[in-house]
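Q: Structure for this?
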Amino acid sequence: MTNIDKIRLMMKDNGVDMYLILDADYHKSEYVSDYFKARSFISGFTGSNGSLLVTLDSCYLWTDGRYFIQAEQELANSDIKLMRIGVKGVLSLLDFIAANKGVLGLDGRCMDAAFVNSLKRKKIEVKDLNLIDEIFTDRPSHCNEMAFELDIHFSGESRESKIERLIANSPNSIQIIEHLDAVNYLMNIRAHDINHFPVLFSYLVVSKDFRWYFADEKKLPHDLKGKLLAEGFEIRPYENYYQDIASIRDQTIVMDFNKISFKSYQEVYLHNVLFNKASYADMMKACKNEQEIKNLRAAHIVDGVAMVKFIYKLKKEYANYDEYTAGRMLDEIRLESALELSFNTIAGYKENAAMMHYSAKKESAKKLDKDGMLLVDSGGHYLLGTTDITRTISFDKVSKRERKLYTTVLKANLNLASAKFLKGISGVNLDILARNPIWQLGIDYRSGTGHGVGYLLSVHEGPHGIRYQKSNLRNEDTKLVEGMVVTDEPGIYLENELGIRLENELVVYKEFENEYGEFMNFDVITYCPFDRALINKKLLTKAELKQVNDYHKMVYKKLKNHLDEDERKWLKQECAKL
Amino acid sequence: MTNIDKIRLMMKDNGVDMYLILDADYHKSEYVSDYFKARSFISGFTGSNGSLLVTLDSCYLWTDGRYFIQAEQELANSDIKLMRIGVKGVLSLLDFIAANKGVLGLDGRCMDAAFVNSLKRKKIEVKDLNLIDEIFTDRPSHCNEMAFELDIHFSGESRESKIERLIANSPNSIQIIEHLDAVNYLMNIRAHDINHFPVLFSYLVVSKDFRWYFADEKKLPHDLKGKLLAEGFEIRPYENYYQDIASIRDQTIVMDFNKISFKSYQEVYLHNVLFNKASYADMMKACKNEQEIKNLRAAHIVDGVAMVKFIYKLKKEYANYDEYTAGRMLDEIRLESALELSFNTIAGYKENAAMMHYSAKKESAKKLDKDGMLLVDSGGHYLLGTTDITRTISFDKVSKRERKLYTTVLKANLNLASAKFLKGISGVNLDILARNPIWQLGIDYRSGTGHGVGYLLSVHEGPHGIRYQKSNLRNEDTKLVEGMVVTDEPGIYLENELGIRLENELVVYKEFENEYGEFMNFDVITYCPFDRALINKKLLTKAELKQVNDYHKMVYKKLKNHLDEDERKWLKQECAKL
């Protein structure tokens, strides 16, 4: 009997007509540890975005355009029908479920309350039901590594101060926080529970009267436990969470339905007044404090040195590398200093770079040659913060077209970075600065221009961003305020031809205040040269040319003392006035 | 007994504690005919924005920063207290009324439903009460001029087609439309009932079953009446409107609470299902058809010729003019061809131009001299459409600073005009293109960058615009679609020093469609040179310089055959390659 057949049997026993399975943990994490990859286990499809729906006589998998080819391959030997999201005539998961009628089963711990409530608004009957644990028995174990406290030298603010600020924002409510970046940020705690996302599985429930911290006590160092108790935290078993919050009665609770599990919602909604509101912690952690920014600048020097060493070596020895080994070479250099990569390095050569989230396979990796460009998007987690950088690299031969397109992406990157703007502006207003030069060529990039970056947390962090369209799931119109970090990563992706992306990180600063208001600007904190062979300076305005030259001058100054002689010489040439 | 005392007596008789008086007609018109200037009549304050609140023992007038000085002067001999909107510590009208408690009286015909509903949400008791007619007896009469039909050569679309499109958009509802630009647009009728706003007072109530047109029959030409009857319209007396809509029962009604009077709302809300929705007519009229655009281009040639004749003469003879007489000279030239001015010409010299809506007085007008700049914002109504243009003009002496600031505003204007963008974009996304160069100097202009323009209707027209902030009253995030006309009018205003604004009108075009979507761009339809003496070409990029030169070349080509010899020679020099 296949696993899907086993699920069907249990569905019948439970009076359920459909069952929904995701790769999702209990915290809505962007990256999911293997323990939670139920959908991958049952369907065989391993892409990062996929929803598996089992019905009594059939089975469907929804995924997006990035994964059509991979899904076709991985589902080839199964009866699972591929539902291509966005393709004409393909029903969305929600519409399909609504049309199919009947009772829908799902694991309420792995689905957020907002999603399940939207199902209910479509008159779909939902049953909270865990059918996975009985099948997915041989699942990968949780990580057992100890958690650690982030010293004030790194966090820049004590746990006490953060919790006080949090409570002061909603002094008369209980705040329930499940998303791991917020909990770990507030607690100044990190761990290794999820690859690329250095957090400890934990929940936080606080009010002015109590502080419940749900976590696996075994992973907390002894002295940290002592501190937490002294600071008034009750350390409660992680697995008691649902049962404990179910005991809350007649309170006002602030929680973010998009980041709270349906199960939690169920446990509290009948007996309390709920306010659906993004946690104030999201804004707190988005606005980096002075110490964090100081640290980030240092992290970016370390990271820039790794990038320069990598590019220097690769430009010299490209003939010995392919996309895959080039990526591994960079990872090795970076991991000399970084705790971990902040995501899997993307290294795409020539037409492979046109796939924005390309992941080179060892077996099929494209060998590097003297022509074409290699797009490398990568980053690291450091105690000093998290980095995210993209460079597009040429080798010995560069075409006129490549220079034109590269220079256009460079203009886009520079235009956003040089913006000066009144407080009150959001990324929705600024996006066009980067996109305009690329749109002038009749080309678009199908992504936002930038995202927030966590501090030793998720490399993608809200609530702000640089995008021109508002989606319901994001808050692109969050105003940009001092201390926010945001990426600046316009690109050009031409199918079957090439991909170019140039990504720097920016910090929002208040520049001055006058009768018009507070003027803000950006400061670039990524230190790595652009590829001068790919710049056609005739396409730059005088101001843009100066901006590149000033940037390169700063990069050289920041990095020169951390390189060996040959690397330094090379960097000096790369950073010479254009 | 003063008028205010008389009002107080009536307030007491009617059990009302406060009474609100505006200069407002029954259609929420931006420009109001003198008949409706009740607030001006009673308070003596004549600015375009003012709310007069009479209480049983006091009297208050709210106005904004544009009118503080004028209001102080005009209220000097009264007991009316000036409430300066936006000044710290000054309660807003709404908050003041709420704090004051008691019953508020107002003329429900002159207040929109959304506003009154917002009062009610603040628990303010409202009484619909007309206390003005008994006092304001000697009021200016309505205009008696006949209305006229806009020929299909001008409108580009028959009334029948427009009404059918309107009904098809909400086939199962009754649509009630009170705002005059929509009614007159749909009916292809124009008149002279309001200065600067060439419309006939009228209402439209239509469904697939009937078409009621409320208007003064005496003003409709005989043959037009015949046509309307043949097309299935019932022409009903204007003054029967409220009583007739009160007869509607058990229907679904679509109406825009922001553009419908409170009285109308009251007449229908109990017995029908109301949908608060902007009229589809707003989008219909915002998207000009091919014929309208063709006509507009012709109107702008006529208007550009007037502007060039004016600038030529003024540059030669400035010593004989002041701000006021310069404006009148332009009006005279324009009115040789235009039906009417589309608004009162703004002509401000030197520091007076820093006031965005400056209105020069004959007595106190500043004499023109060889230095300094004159800002002239003006426009005309033609059968071929409505124009709105601003130029800032130098005379014999130009300072380095003036050139720098003028060139910055020019860059702002050019940057927006040259945008190419994907369909789906709104003015909220594009505003920064114009504002960025000015923000780079640490200067802001406290206005939007652009507004829609009606076709022989209001010179300010929604629903789209170019602004970076959303206000609740406007729909700045209306997507830009083909055929929309929008102004491009960035500026720099330095108090006590100078004012610069450069305003062209743009038409939104679809340029091409490819795999990324539909790319749109703008075409400039205003034809009048920028002031070359004020352009510092070193501050322009190569692309911007080419854009100016191309524009000037086009302007010369469009206008040259309509000027006399001396004017043409001058224009040729003005438009020569920079």
